[in-house]
TrEMBL record:
Residues 84-102 form the U2A'/phosphoprotein 32 family A C-terminal domain. One of its GO terms (molecular function) is U2 snRNA binding. Belongs to the U2 small nuclear ribonucleoprotein A family. Involved in pre-mRNA splicing as component of the spliceosome. Associated with sn-RNP U2, where it contributes to the binding of stem loop IV of U2 snRNA. It comes from Aegotheles bennettii. The keyword Repeat applies. Keywords: Leucine-rich repeat, mRNA processing, mRNA splicing, Nucleus, Repeat, Spliceosome. The lineage of its organism: Eukaryota, Metazoa, Chordata, Craniata, Vertebrata. Residues 196-211 have a biased composition (Acidic residues). GO terms for biological process: mRNA splicing, via spliceosome. The gene is Snrpa1. It holds the Pfam family LRR_9. Identified in the spliceosome B complex. Identified in the spliceosome C complex. Found in a pre-mRNA splicing complex with SFRS4, SFRS5, SNRNP70, SNRPA1, SRRM1 and SRRM2. Found in a pre-mRNA exonic splicing enhancer (ESE) complex with SNRNP70, SNRPA1, SRRM1 and TRA2B. Contributes to the binding of stem loop IV of U2 snRNA with SNRPB2. This is RU2A protein.
Amino acid sequence: DAIDFSDNEIRKLDGFPLLRRLKTLLMNNNRICRIGESLEQALPSLTELVLTNNNIAELGELDPLATIKSLTYLSILRNPVTNKKHYRLYVIHKVPQVRVLDFQKVKLKERQEAEKMFKGKRGAQLAKDIARRTKTFNPGAGLPTDKKKAGPSAGDVEAIKTAIANATTLAEVERLKGLLQAGQIPGRERKSGPSEDGEEEMEEDAVPNGS
Protein backbone atom coordinates (compact mmCIF):
# COMPACT_ATOMS: atom_id res chain seq x y z
CA ASP A 1 0.00 0.00 0.00
CA ALA A 2 1.05 3.62 -0.55
CA ILE A 3 0.11 6.99 0.95
CA ASP A 4 0.84 10.34 -0.68
CA PHE A 5 1.11 13.34 1.67
CA SER A 6 2.98 15.51 -0.83
CA ASP A 7 2.46 19.26 -1.15
CA ASN A 8 1.24 20.01 2.36
CA GLU A 9 2.59 22.01 5.30
CA ILE A 10 3.74 19.04 7.39
CA ARG A 11 6.62 19.95 9.72
CA LYS A 12 7.34 16.67 11.49
CA LEU A 13 7.25 13.07 10.31
CA ASP A 14 5.34 11.57 13.19
CA GLY A 15 1.92 10.72 14.62
CA PHE A 16 1.03 7.76 12.41
CA PRO A 17 -1.45 5.11 13.56
CA LEU A 18 -0.48 1.48 13.10
CA LEU A 19 -0.28 0.86 9.34
CA ARG A 20 0.95 -2.70 8.92
CA ARG A 21 0.55 -2.85 5.13
CA LEU A 22 2.01 0.55 4.25
CA LYS A 23 5.10 0.12 2.08
CA THR A 24 5.46 3.48 0.31
CA LEU A 25 5.20 6.91 1.94
CA LEU A 26 5.50 10.04 -0.21
CA MET A 27 6.21 13.20 1.81
CA ASN A 28 7.86 15.43 -0.79
CA ASN A 29 7.24 19.19 -0.97
CA ASN A 30 6.43 19.71 2.70
CA ARG A 31 8.23 21.58 5.49
CA ILE A 32 9.50 18.58 7.44
CA CYS A 33 12.46 19.39 9.67
CA ARG A 34 12.14 16.61 12.27
CA ILE A 35 11.57 12.86 12.18
CA GLY A 36 9.78 11.21 15.09
CA GLU A 37 11.18 8.38 17.17
CA SER A 38 9.94 4.78 16.97
CA LEU A 39 8.36 5.10 13.53
CA GLU A 40 8.93 1.38 13.04
CA GLN A 41 6.17 0.68 15.56
CA ALA A 42 3.58 2.42 13.39
CA LEU A 43 5.12 1.62 9.99
CA PRO A 44 6.62 -1.88 10.38
CA SER A 45 6.53 -2.69 6.64
CA LEU A 46 7.73 0.63 5.20
CA THR A 47 10.19 0.05 2.37
CA GLU A 48 10.16 3.35 0.45
CA LEU A 49 10.26 6.85 1.94
CA VAL A 50 10.42 9.99 -0.21
CA LEU A 51 11.34 13.17 1.68
CA THR A 52 12.41 15.20 -1.34
CA ASN A 53 12.21 18.99 -0.98
CA ASN A 54 11.77 19.45 2.77
CA ASN A 55 13.64 21.34 5.51
CA ILE A 56 15.78 18.66 7.17
CA ALA A 57 19.00 20.48 8.04
CA GLU A 58 21.08 18.27 10.35
CA LEU A 59 22.42 14.75 9.84
CA GLY A 60 21.34 13.73 13.32
CA GLU A 61 17.71 14.33 12.36
CA LEU A 62 17.94 11.26 10.12
CA ASP A 63 18.95 8.90 12.94
CA PRO A 64 15.37 7.75 13.76
CA LEU A 65 15.18 6.13 10.32
CA ALA A 66 17.70 3.53 11.46
CA THR A 67 15.01 1.68 13.42
CA ILE A 68 12.88 1.06 10.31
CA LYS A 69 14.59 -2.19 9.34
CA SER A 70 12.41 -2.71 6.27
CA LEU A 71 13.42 0.64 4.73
CA THR A 72 15.38 0.08 1.51
CA TYR A 73 14.56 3.10 -0.69
CA LEU A 74 15.14 6.60 0.67
CA SER A 75 15.16 10.03 -0.97
CA ILE A 76 16.26 13.17 0.87
CA LEU A 77 17.08 15.23 -2.19
CA ARG A 78 16.62 19.02 -1.98
CA ASN A 79 16.95 19.16 1.79
CA PRO A 80 19.64 21.38 3.37
CA VAL A 81 21.15 18.31 5.02
CA THR A 82 22.36 16.98 1.67
CA ASN A 83 24.91 19.80 1.58
CA LYS A 84 26.55 18.57 4.78
CA LYS A 85 30.02 17.07 4.57
CA HIS A 86 29.96 13.25 4.57
CA TYR A 87 26.16 13.30 4.11
CA ARG A 88 25.90 10.21 1.94
CA LEU A 89 28.42 8.15 3.91
CA TYR A 90 26.74 9.12 7.18
CA VAL A 91 23.33 7.94 5.97
CA ILE A 92 24.82 4.69 4.67
CA HIS A 93 26.46 4.17 8.06
CA LYS A 94 23.41 5.05 10.16
CA VAL A 95 20.74 3.46 7.97
CA PRO A 96 22.61 0.47 6.48
CA GLN A 97 19.43 -1.28 5.35
CA VAL A 98 18.91 1.37 2.65
CA ARG A 99 19.94 0.03 -0.75
CA VAL A 100 18.93 3.01 -2.89
CA LEU A 101 19.68 6.50 -1.57
CA ASP A 102 18.52 9.55 -3.51
CA PHE A 103 17.70 7.30 -6.47
CA GLN A 104 21.29 6.03 -6.63
CA LYS A 105 22.13 2.47 -5.67
CA VAL A 106 24.40 2.20 -2.65
CA LYS A 107 27.63 0.62 -3.85
CA LEU A 108 29.77 -1.85 -1.93
CA LYS A 109 32.67 0.59 -2.15
CA GLU A 110 30.55 3.24 -0.41
CA ARG A 111 29.62 0.84 2.37
CA GLN A 112 33.26 -0.02 2.92
CA GLU A 113 34.23 3.65 2.94
CA ALA A 114 31.47 4.47 5.44
CA GLU A 115 32.51 1.59 7.69
CA LYS A 116 36.12 2.76 7.62
CA MET A 117 35.22 6.40 8.29
CA PHE A 118 33.03 5.72 11.32
CA LYS A 119 34.96 2.78 12.76
CA GLY A 120 36.31 2.74 16.31
CA LYS A 121 36.32 5.50 18.90
CA ARG A 122 37.49 8.17 16.49
CA GLY A 123 34.81 7.21 14.01
CA ALA A 124 32.13 7.22 16.69
CA GLN A 125 33.24 10.67 17.81
CA LEU A 126 33.19 11.92 14.22
CA ALA A 127 29.64 10.63 13.77
CA LYS A 128 28.62 12.34 17.00
CA ASP A 129 30.22 15.63 16.00
CA ILE A 130 28.59 15.84 12.58
CA ALA A 131 25.19 14.66 13.78
CA ARG A 132 24.30 17.79 15.71
CA ARG A 133 20.57 17.94 16.06
CA THR A 134 18.41 21.00 16.29
CA LYS A 135 16.55 21.92 19.45
CA THR A 136 13.57 19.87 20.56
CA PHE A 137 10.64 20.45 18.26
CA ASN A 138 7.80 22.29 19.97
CA PRO A 139 4.92 23.27 17.68
CA GLY A 140 4.36 26.99 18.01
CA ALA A 141 7.48 27.51 20.09
CA GLY A 142 9.15 30.84 19.58
CA LEU A 143 6.04 32.47 18.22
CA PRO A 144 5.23 35.81 19.85
CA THR A 145 2.29 35.80 22.20
CA ASP A 146 0.25 38.82 23.15
CA LYS A 147 -2.21 38.16 25.93
CA LYS A 148 -3.81 41.55 25.38
CA LYS A 149 -4.94 40.34 21.97
CA ALA A 150 -6.14 36.94 23.14
CA GLY A 151 -9.78 37.86 22.59
CA PRO A 152 -12.21 40.71 21.87
CA SER A 153 -12.88 43.35 24.50
CA ALA A 154 -16.20 43.61 26.36
CA GLY A 155 -17.31 46.30 23.91
CA ASP A 156 -16.42 44.10 20.97
CA VAL A 157 -18.42 41.21 22.43
CA GLU A 158 -21.48 43.45 22.73
CA ALA A 159 -21.03 44.63 19.13
CA ILE A 160 -20.86 41.03 17.94
CA LYS A 161 -23.96 40.05 19.95
CA THR A 162 -25.89 43.03 18.60
CA ALA A 163 -24.95 42.28 15.01
CA ILE A 164 -25.93 38.62 15.33
CA ALA A 165 -29.22 39.51 17.03
CA ASN A 166 -30.08 41.92 14.23
CA ALA A 167 -29.20 39.49 11.44
CA THR A 168 -32.40 38.47 9.66
CA THR A 169 -31.11 36.58 6.62
CA LEU A 170 -28.63 33.81 5.94
CA ALA A 171 -26.70 36.17 3.66
CA GLU A 172 -26.26 38.61 6.53
CA VAL A 173 -25.05 35.84 8.83
CA GLU A 174 -22.50 34.77 6.22
CA ARG A 175 -21.37 38.38 5.83
CA LEU A 176 -20.83 38.64 9.59
CA LYS A 177 -18.85 35.41 9.60
CA GLY A 178 -16.64 36.76 6.84
CA LEU A 179 -15.97 39.96 8.80
CA LEU A 180 -15.15 38.04 11.97
CA GLN A 181 -12.75 35.75 10.11
CA ALA A 182 -11.06 38.84 8.67
CA GLY A 183 -10.57 40.20 12.18
CA GLN A 184 -13.15 42.99 11.83
CA ILE A 185 -15.85 43.77 14.35
CA PRO A 186 -19.36 43.95 12.85
CA GLY A 187 -20.68 47.49 12.91
CA ARG A 188 -17.17 48.99 12.79
CA GLU A 189 -15.94 47.90 9.39
CA ARG A 190 -17.16 51.11 7.75
CA LYS A 191 -18.49 54.19 9.51
CA SER A 192 -19.22 56.40 6.54
CA GLY A 193 -20.51 55.98 3.03
CA PRO A 194 -22.48 53.08 1.59
CA SER A 195 -20.89 49.66 2.01
CA GLU A 196 -19.93 47.49 -0.91
CA ASP A 197 -22.32 44.87 0.41
CA GLY A 198 -25.12 47.45 0.40
CA GLU A 199 -24.34 48.38 -3.17
CA GLU A 200 -24.35 44.74 -4.21
CA GLU A 201 -27.68 44.16 -2.45
CA MET A 202 -29.18 47.18 -4.19
CA GLU A 203 -28.00 45.90 -7.55
CA GLU A 204 -29.49 42.48 -6.86
CA ASP A 205 -32.82 43.98 -5.74
CA ALA A 206 -33.08 46.34 -8.70
CA VAL A 207 -35.47 45.15 -11.38
CA PRO A 208 -34.56 46.19 -14.93
CA ASN A 209 -37.20 48.29 -16.69
CA GLY A 210 -38.96 46.53 -19.48
CA SER A 211 -38.77 48.07 -22.94
